[in-house]
Records
---
Amino acid sequence: MKITAPTLLLDKSKCLANIQQMSEKAARSGVSFRPHFKTHQSAITGSWFRDFGVTAITVSSVDMAIYFAAAGWKDITIAFPYNPRETERLKSLTSMAAINLLLVDPSTVRLLGKSLDSEVGFFIEVDAGYHRSGMTLDHYHEMLDLLDIASRFPNLVFKGFLSHFGNTYKAESPAAVRNIYNCSMEQLVKLKDALSGTYGDLTLSVGDTPSCSILEDFGGADEIRPGNFVFYDVMQSRIGSCTPGQIAVCLAAPVVAKNKERFELVVHGGAVHLSRESICAENHENFGLPVSLALSGWSQPLPGCRVSGLSQEHGVISVTPEVFQSFEIGDLIGILPIHSCLSVACMKQYFTLQGELITCL
Amino acid sequence: MKITAPTLLLDKSKCLANIQQMSEKAARSGVSFRPHFKTHQSAITGSWFRDFGVTAITVSSVDMAIYFAAAGWKDITIAFPYNPRETERLKSLTSMAAINLLLVDPSTVRLLGKSLDSEVGFFIEVDAGYHRSGMTLDHYHEMLDLLDIASRFPNLVFKGFLSHFGNTYKAESPAAVRNIYNCSMEQLVKLKDALSGTYGDLTLSVGDTPSCSILEDFGGADEIRPGNFVFYDVMQSRIGSCTPGQIAVCLAAPVVAKNKERFELVVHGGAVHLSRESICAENHENFGLPVSLALSGWSQPLPGCRVSGLSQEHGVISVTPEVFQSFEIGDLIGILPIHSCLSVACMKQYFTLQGELITCL
């Protein structure tokens, strides 16, 4: 494979190891594994999960559900608040796969219930501290209202409670991740205990990548739904979810200019390739970690180097004098992305190190 | 047009007014108008420029040059440092259109010169203070080396000096933009004066959107290359390049949840739709400005409201109590993007208010 322009590379062996590690952990912990497919966004990468016994998946949009249903997945949770504008597309989807939805508001349940002509499962989305969407424990009576309305529609099947502990992404240490997980789970377990008598066997579905990577015991959870772990990224490595060596995707970017006064490499590789996601590390904005590329993969992050600037097509990489000397215009340099989900969404395709093209939704 | 999922809308009349205003200003100021097509990225939108007499364009990648050459554009400047890995594609491009390149390093000129079998124009890219790429005045002797090497290859035709004053994007006022422009132009004029005797009629090509929008007199410049002005965005409105009413693109996003304690609307519309670009306004991170949508277009930004959070598919909009009351789950809300170039790159297509689909590169 001759790389001439920014190209996203996948180290398939790292990716498979990430999938294996997480599926084994789920099995050890006695929880179901329903991986989120929003990171890799590809039917091909998705198919690799089948070898690890995965039969149920999570997605974040109706579009993504349709794409993976067409690829043969028969059990899909759309982990996004139900959008009443998509009822017709949702209905066509139910003939392709068993679908679970998130409901967060009693007022829309009646609308949905009236429209359905076949069964869908639903979870109540719980906000356990992330404060993005979902109902908090303070809304317990609204949850009961919601369940009461839903119970009038036999096509609406209550499955349990689902939560995304997205506040772990801001955690500064594994201990902080554990703390968020335990506080959040406590609330979910309380809800399940309160309603199991009435509704029978309910599922608690959780599982952001930091929690799933760092914890060994998912105490109380029935199902985990991590997504990012399939590729990991710089943000996850900083939280402590993975080592830099587990990051499975890397942007290959051609060096197009060098600035010797500032020890900077300019590359073709910008915000339309990596996304504008950044982290602040040691008071510097960082848009990615440079690595050396070889045919067999890439190196550990080059010490003292970072992507310090990013515009639409340009990346600026601040490097050490030694690294500066070792790259010439026309060379390729690798960049580990800050947020792999967004880099994949930007690039829409990637290549394995063996040169296999993997297309996305 | 029934909108069910996040959809980028274009107000064509605003877009045409933006093009007209800039093309008239260029004519008044006696400079050539070579608009950058990296913002709209569409052959259809590009075709509208022909009615304003535009025949020469700017792009930021070889891919984009090939796309617009195929759409019939015959005079294209690739405003990105020449990437030696793309020489073969560049050569095939020269049979489709007259191409200008940027050169920033003497060492690659020989390589390029040897490969070419037909003429390409080239500019020396000048760093006049932005410090992304380009040669500074301190590199005057390297510029002479570069020109000396280039002069041995008849297919390399020296056109002049090109600079992107990208530091205007960080300017806090129109006065600051004018100041950056004038300081930067002074350096370019000095270079042109020094080399016109030897090289004849040289072109000074400049033109970021803030400078081109705010200045009336481009003193010394021969050509302007603004791009973002075609749609503008929240960032440009904050700099003072445009009014919010001139912003020609808007993401229509379905409201999927409401949080009455925090006065927040949750929408389907996230980082994969708007990009992660943000500005900091009044100590708050802002990912977009909400507006009300109507069939005929959209309102001014809703006072006191902003997109306060953005994940892959979710947007969280902080609103006033009045606005909170006026939106229900299932409604559409509009979001003016912080950086329209990146939102277009994320969405890859947009619709006019009349329902015409406009596809992108």
---
Amino acid sequence: LSKAYIVGAGPGDPGLLTVRALQVLQSAEVVLYDRLVSPSILALIPDTAEQIYAGKIEGEQAEVQGFISRMLVEHTLAGKRVVRLKGGDPLVFGRGAEEWRLLREAGVEVELVPGVSAALSVPGLAGIPPTFRGIADGFAVVTGHLRDGSEQVDWSKYASVDTLIILMGVRTRVEIARELIRHGRPPDQPVAFIERGATPAERVILATLRDVAEGGVEVENPAVFVAGEVVRLRPFLVDGLGLAQLLDRAECLEVDPT
Amino acid sequence: LSKAYIVGAGPGDPGLLTVRALQVLQSAEVVLYDRLVSPSILALIPDTAEQIYAGKIEGEQAEVQGFISRMLVEHTLAGKRVVRLKGGDPLVFGRGAEEWRLLREAGVEVELVPGVSAALSVPGLAGIPPTFRGIADGFAVVTGHLRDGSEQVDWSKYASVDTLIILMGVRTRVEIARELIRHGRPPDQPVAFIERGATPAERVILATLRDVAEGGVEVENPAVFVAGEVVRLRPFLVDGLGLAQLLDRAECLEVDPT
């Protein structure tokens, strides 16, 4: 039976690849990868392997997805060791489960190699934990990307969770913040955008949900958008502030002026 | 400056450790680990390292936590290479961020090594993806553990999310399911409990939220509790069913009789 590998690349740092992902990549014959996979991870793929950048394939989204799935199936049935490499965890958005399903329908065995999700690790590395006892009993992860411009996420479903982590929400951040406030999320709640997270070029922008709704927060892609009281923990974790010091810093939240 | 490592061990399979976690573990001098870290991962720690099982420390939870943090600080300040090893991702419940904060207050540098979260990977490996285009735009992860029996998670905050993943919710599953239904989650929504996920002894129990609320679903710890339409995808991903086959299988959901 032929077998394909659906592999998570983690948030970008090669050290955050899993041991199994590294093994699978190093013995790959064909690797089909997405835009969000970092160059330092692609450098680990053997020279002998064919590397296919899925972002280069043009056409309607549904066509592109069909083409990617057919390539995966054809190379696998031809006896190649095929790896589908995705940023973060392969089942958190990005259609990993759709590809898994199409491979199974074609009679291909699939090994899933879960990855470190950027949704959790990027805020975490920036000193913003998804959960904290007494502050956040849970968190939600949602895509901010409006599919084909025609559909929209129903933010009422997510407005009341403790920590809200939004991927692909930079472009639509003003609308998202307005919708969240409209559905009852406090306008003065702290938010953070972590640009280029888990890399040395990381930049963290702190603001309030109201600032974002009013259009006053400049952010560059790619960035993870976090809204919740846990954002206030960053100075304790990153700068090592004690409680007394934090109380002295009434303005612990500020909008980056750049 | 002294430095401590807060490291995620992933869901249990040593292949799902990150490359960085493996490096850090193999050069550790003191490892303080939790109940949820698997024996096959502990086997990777060098014999020369002191291994301390945090679950053995007795007392009130707050005292225990203080004791663990003091041990971390003292061993680190004494010049040891100290690793705090936690199941899954260290910042998803489990007080990883609290320990990070106490280490920083004590002047200790911290390196966070994010891990593969069991909350996402255990359902994923069982063929239940947290997201799926058109079915789930997002997911939430919540603890089902009622702290000290005195407080309770406010389930109204999480009842409307697409996919709901609950950790430490086996004991309180009946109450959780009732609360979710009371706050508007559909009683006939499919749910899954994945016992001993990401191990060869994995067992998946399928039911509906109503079955759980009525007390009819037997589950053993440890298990991840998932509620959402994505549970219906499991036969496509695991058994490779095509759409036609699934329509023939009206009773794709069943309560495991054991």
---
Amino acid sequence: MNALIVLAHPEVKSYNAALARATQDGLQRQGHEVHLSDLYAQAFAPDEHGRHFPRRANPLRFDAQSEQRFSAGRNALPHEVRKELDALLWADLLVLQFPLWWFGMPAILKGWMDRVFVYGKLYSSRRRFHSGVCAGKRAMLSVTAGSSSDACAPDGKEGDTRLILWPIHYALHYVGFTVLEPLIVTDVRGGRSGSDAERQKLLLELRLREQGTIFESIDGRPAIAFNDPDDWDELGKLKPDAPVHSPFIGHERWSRTGA
Amino acid sequence: MNALIVLAHPEVKSYNAALARATQDGLQRQGHEVHLSDLYAQAFAPDEHGRHFPRRANPLRFDAQSEQRFSAGRNALPHEVRKELDALLWADLLVLQFPLWWFGMPAILKGWMDRVFVYGKLYSSRRRFHSGVCAGKRAMLSVTAGSSSDACAPDGKEGDTRLILWPIHYALHYVGFTVLEPLIVTDVRGGRSGSDAERQKLLLELRLREQGTIFESIDGRPAIAFNDPDDWDELGKLKPDAPVHSPFIGHERWSRTGA
């Protein structure tokens, strides 16, 4: 198996960077080929912008989707986008490693998605969801949060972190990935007082040692359920008798059928 | 009233840019002071990074929150962050104008949040939510989506766009804002065939003319409900008898009490 790990943290000595290396080690121990793409190390530009496209379909008015398709069709995508896209197409497993900042990805990783999920190459109106370019590949988020496990739980003040990740999971599902249940490490900023801080430090070290082991047995990891193509009518509305696999879809029905 | 509009679109001739100008016009007609911050025009760097902090609390290991607090306390924040932060503190109303890219903000706007929502200045562990620095101020999203109104509806394939915006709304609530119901314009990429495309173009022009009028009567716009401070116990868990104002919190209870 080929695996691509995309790391989005500005500090090489960070806990996130250590988790990414532990993931790499665990996968390599199983004989997999691993590529680690460190977005900060390569100074990946997060802003989708006309300057990235010297050959333009329309030089007078920049439209991201149109220019992505135009350049993709002429093998003229920006070098750093081509590189990331090739790694993505090569990989059977994608792991995104990042800290939760403001209930989402750090901007550099959002920009990786904005730029590398190329219209006309990774998706089109005909190649989406179950018929997406990445169908058959698996993707997984490995996330850290500064808040406590209580506050990140389904009844927690920070919101259920697993559900907060849903828009990202849905974007991965959109391009065809099978999305595995995420890894979420809470309390990464440690405890506040002496013995509490010491205990939390030990827990984080222990968790880091487990990371490789988790990826050694990745094949048994459950996937997140999404609605089937047949659950939608021709307008893209959920059929009345379909189950609901999202807090964002048919929320009157979510608590009855949602996982 | 003072209003700050933050625009995140790479094309000055875009529909998003036109909506931002219409918002500005509508507010000015009511006699309000308006500042428009065009993130692409000022080449705002979206990636929170050690290079933005020449004076460091810890030169050996970059931690965004620690360095934000350190620089904020020494009046040494990066110039472009200081500028945006001053505008934010000056404003009584914040409007974020952006296209929905991959179920979230374009990276440049996420980076504005990552960098300008400064720890130790705009929030701290004591100043959050109802006691946040922005308490008493209002914020509002004005968003465009390429998908159809059917697909963006509560039972739509793209997910209920209003709920997809919830992580962004919650981040604004976190720093204290009263969050108004968002404006969502769907189908902005227009119809596909001749008469359909023509009709959609006219609808978008009509909607653009309404934008200013909407902001002329902004005072009557309803706010999004969030849970009260008293709804949480000391661990940050929702009390059993509290209502639920989020698809991410207590989702077993969401459909029964959620708005």
